[in-house]
Amino acid sequence: MTSPIAGGVDCDLHPAVPHLTSLLPYLNDYWRDQVTTRGMTDLVSQSYPSNSPITARPDWRPSQGKPGSSLDDMRKQALDVFKVSHGICNPLYGVQMVFSEDMADAFCRALNDWLAKEWLDRDERLRGSIVIPVQSVEKSVAEIERCAQDRRFVQVLMLVMGDMPLGKRAYWPIYAAAERHGLVVGIHAGSNYHNPPTSVGWGSYHIEDYVAQAQAFQTQLTSLIVEGVFARHQHLKMVMLESGFTWLPPFLWRLHKFWRGIRMETPWVDRAPLEIVRSNIRFSLQPIDAPPDPPMLNRLFDHMQSDELLLFSTDYPHWQFDEDKALPEGLSSDLVRKIMIDNPLATYGRLRQGATKETTP
Amino acid sequence: MNVQFRDRPEPASTAVAKTSHIKAAIADCDIHPARATKTELYPYLAKRWHEHLETYDKRPYHGMMEGPPYPKAQPNASRRDAYPPEGGPQGSSLSFMQKQHLDPNNVVLGVLNPLATGQGIRNHDLAAAICSAINDWQIEKWTSKDKRLKGSIVVANEDGAAAAAEIRTRAGDKNFVQVLLLSRNVEPLGQRRYWPIYEAAEEAGLPVGIHAFGFGGNPITASGWPSFYIEEMVGHAQCQQTVLASLVLEGVFERHPTLKMIMIEAGFGWAPSLSWRLDKTFERLRSEVPHLKRRPSEYIRDHIWWTTQPMEDPEQRDHLFQLIDWIGWDRLLFATDYPHWDYDDPSRVLPAGASDANRDAFYLGNARKLYGIV
Questions:
Q1: Contact B277 A247 (CB under 8 A)
Q2: ipTM of the complex
Q3: What is the pTM for the complete model shown?
């Protein structure tokens, strides 16, 4: 196996909100009252059913409570094992699913404050992602402005499946705000289920939805590239989280071919899709949808035509690998260093600035 | 592709290899025949449907009555040089198709995939009537007039019973070599409403071709409707991946062990990564799908073929060859997509470097074997 090296960055950790009631201290009176009076249920997304094998590695599953809800466990099982300098927290709490933008806004604010207080304040290695109420661009921008003051937030977090394709111009103020504050935009697997979870309708199984995440990332990359997000925001970095990456080379061949054929439709796309990906898009390492033997994986890295695209991640506590085999077999030590340290630091500008501890306003 | 090709310097050996294969016999597994006029199908339709079409026309699972939701890059999405001299849209004249495509490219087996049929329309009785008419029309206008051409049994995709009946009616008719579905339907194609189609196809010993496109009311991303035609075109590859995952995970190949399927015009580059992802996820979640007895990649390897157009086109040709090695040289079926604008030219599509055996399989052998045409 390939050994991890110390001082890396784990770009995809999932601290779990124990229950909607855990956010009550971070809600105002009105929303606290709404949650209790209406008897609102916990916001568990069907992207990750609590007991699904994907949702937690068997040996990472706590005896009680949700996987990922204990900082001590995260330290013992991930941060310490992989000797990381930083771990980026991407809470996957189902706040995007609610249909009221006011409610989503209240829950996102509470979630971000909860993350700062109960995780970032308690371990200096941890960094955060700002979860935004995507249905309202205005409220999303306001939440970015509010949280960006805390330098420990390094990223804005969106789900790969939402109401509209992510390249749509309506979302651009979110990207402008992220770029302005030196924040990465992280796109994570998952859906708000406002649209069917595949482009051909509703399937039957959880396994189908999980496999379909990769196709959703592909369509979002197309949207982001052809709408011109990176022509407008040249310095914006986006990270595809829990996306898989072995689909990338053939996806880019196809996009490139059609871009050559019908670029008259989107004349502002003035660079080849592959170049845009190289300069603006990154991918978290796990899950690795790998071929059966290591030499094939190395050929695949060759097809990616860049060693700067991948960022180390454990996807903790999701079950992507066993023991400490977070890195695939057969990687060169040079590539390990790039994936674990150089690439994440080059991507997350705020990690390079060594944020001092601050409290969220 | 209907684009201006840049001249690229190529080694002399490449040019020689290409030239020597230009006139070799080929199969074209994706040809689109069109109707010259709107009423060309009327002789095959009951009077009742003439009146219906005149009054209500075909109402698809999207809003546009006259054309596609995303305007194509060319009129009829077809080559500008493919208009027949006698008039009518591209692909509507057998004699011009012969002159422009079948003869000069030495196509010895051409598989017809009619589009704009009864598929993807909301009135399912009308859908069945039009599909049946299209099948009669294929025989009369195309396959009976040119023995190189073979038809596809077009079926009312949302009505399993009607579709199965149409397949059983045509079973054994040598004018047809496959059943044709489109990738985008009301539900993913593994769902039970479509199972009667697979049962009837297997019974008839016919492969099922699943061609990119179609309409089922679902946005072409899992995140809503995108803005541009290019997103739809690129997105067909994602639709097809999901369709294939659905077919495998619903157990269609477990139920139909001799069923063969062809993924048409949706690329094949994604096949290995989809297989790896399915296998890895299956390892974790197999308890949810106990009806599957084998790993997903095994069903794909045994049951699926792929047409080549639009050809995967990496910068480095060894990447293409590695990709095909991973899929299997015995699984690719050459196709041009004539007369559509993103047509692949048989003399240019496969770079030099493939063995003669692989090249022959790619251009003709695999298709002959799959379709049982000697």
A1: yes
A2: 0.96
A3: 0.95
